[in-house]
What we know:
Elements (H helix, E strand, L loop, with lengths): L3 H5 L8 E6 L9 H12 E2 L4 E7 L6 H5 L3 E7 L9 E5 L3 H5 L6 H15 L6 E7 L13 H4 L2 H14 L5 E2 L17 H8 L9
Parallel strand pairs: 1-3, 1-4, 4-6
Antiparallel strand pairs: 2-7, 5-6
Helix pairs in contact: 2-7
Amino acid sequence: MDNPVARMDRGAESPRILILGIGNILWADEGFGVRAVEAFHRGFEVPDNVTLLDGGTQGLYLVNFLQEHDHLLVFDAIDYGLPPGTLKRIDGDEVPKFTGAKKMSLHQTGFQEVLSAADLLGAAPQRLTLIGCQPQDLEDWGGALTPPVKARIADALALACDVLGEWGVAVAPRKVPFDPAQGLLCHDIDHDSYERRADPATTTVQG
């Protein structure tokens, strides 16, 4: 576990940054955050002070990760009451207001609790940014991302690169082709494999 005093005494060291995707890939657009961080990992190289994590629906288990990092960038599906696929960036103290707006899944309440618990432990992020996407469908069990949400992943990654740039972190597209074996998700739940399984048109019927 991290020591709050140690966090304050890091001086000129590079801040430790956590890029976190949260959500449930089994409920269509609810998986946006996980799919976004997966795509970021697949597409970009990051320096050693940056960690990428599929947070799924782990809730309070994520507190330990916040204790080990200084800045937090979160991808998530957020119901802003806007047209599907709308992206919004929220910073700092405004983030908890949006992660609790219009309850739509168990993980959101959990993430509010994560932020509160981290604050009580003296481990609240020094910088906090949420990149949220307005979902279209959260009730399609086993379904993939809907087209308007899937179409915004690239824009979400570009926005994340802008945020990281503001935090003094340079990221670059991968020079070496990505090895699927090094993915954040495996066992056929990575985005491409999952979509093939979720699409009836690609499912082979056994006779």
